[in-house]
Amino acid sequence: MYKMNLLEIVQKVLKSMDDDNVSGISDTQSAEDVASIAKDVYYDLLTKADWPHIKLVTQLTGLGDSAKPNFMRLPSDIAEITDIRYDITTPADTKRVMQSITYYEDPADFLDAVLTRNTGNSNVVIKYTTTNVPIFVLNDTGPTFCTSFDDNEIVFDAYNAAVDSTLQTAKSIVEGIKIPVWSATNSFIPDMPGRLFPMYLEKVKILANEYLRQVDLKTDKEDYKTNFNRLRRKKAVNTNVRRKNYGRISRGKI
Fold this sequence. Notes:
The protein is of the alpha+beta class. It folds into two domains: 6-52 and 182-234, no CATH class; 54-178 and 242-250, no CATH class. It contains five helices and twelve strands. Strands 1, 4, 5, 11 and 12 form a five-stranded antiparallel sheet that branches. β9 (145-147) and β10 (153-156) form a beta hairpin. α1 (6-16) crosses α2.
């Protein structure tokens, strides 16, 4: 389906407002205001549903730090993580083993689980977070659960020193939602499927007319609501994603 760049969006919205046409989004104050509304609507739309086009599968980044062998870093373009897996295969295994990792949304729950371990045991070592919080870590097995204290690093409960001295990027799989990049330029095309553009444009028109002209487009609002509900029903989303074992790591509103 047809996609529009930011200039085309602004031009169409200005036309709906009976405002002057422009050849660039910075030509007039009205054009700049519409472009700003278009950005706000775009990011607001992304929060309304788990749209497939912003989902991604990538990897965590291993730190390669012997002082923090059980730590990994989140990719910078991820806003929210929905699933983490790690390869815990050992030389004794006859096939690869990908472990589903439980994520504790509340770090206190993670601490409750690890701080009950006996540091007198040879397989329990103490590692520290950036803020010097002690973590009692198993060093002879793959990780099974994790948390984050700062929405930047993921702290795991274990690593297998006999296999790797630190957790490895190549052994991780993370599913999540990416942070789309917005560019306030004429040629910028918002990252979404073509089928969403008519609904998106309708919402920008509604808000621009309300905020800049104080005009209520009642019919357009009804059409937008109908189209939005229809698209949510049609989008291909796996509703059987396992939720009970996974929290969500959110980096603010996308």
